Amino acid sequence: MHPNSDVASPVSADPELADLAGRVREGVGRLNWRMRSERDPNGPGPAVLAVLSRLYRAGTHTPSELAAAERLQPQSLTRILAGLTERELVTRTPDPDDGRRSLIRITPDGLAVLREYSIQRERWLATALESTLSPTERQLLKLASELLMRVADA
User: Hey, which bits of 1-154 come out as E strands?
Assistant: First the structure.
């Protein structure tokens, strides 16, 4: 937004590109919301899954690194880590380089919880793709998914 204006700056000088950006954002956002809504209501919440996913993807972290990476308040992360440690989904060990810090790692049980969550979402998505899209549309979506990953990595 401009400092003294109620009108937002255009997304792009190219109206077609601006429209595409809006459509992709809307589609990805709605699909993400829908997939999250398909999760087991008795399963781990989004913040817990984010912490487990971060530990799986990026490896061992200190609590401070986890809080910063996931944009969590330290108090919130403390509660999450206590629950994960109690359920043996993560381990907490002293940092050999700095005894005041601890290192958090995902355990095999934590990985199993994360995999089950992913399987549930992918099962729902596969069913939705099969019932909603033609084989040709599924091929187009496969190409689009590859393009989305390229954009995400840009």
Answer: 90-95, 98-106
How far apart, in whole angstroms, are the C-alpha atoms of residue 52 and residue 30? 23
**Residue 105 to residues 97, 108, 137, Cα–Cα distance (Å):** 16, 10, 40
CA distance 22 to 26: 6
Across the range 55-79, mean pLDDT stands at 92
- Which residue has tokens 């390229």? 150
- 78-98: per-residue pLDDT in tens? 999 999 999 999 999 998 888
Residue in 71, 112, 67, 123 with CA at minimum distance from that of residue 89: 112
Q: Over the chain, what is the mean pLDDT?
A: 90
Q: Which of 97, 70, 96, 98 is nearest to 84 (CA)?
A: 70
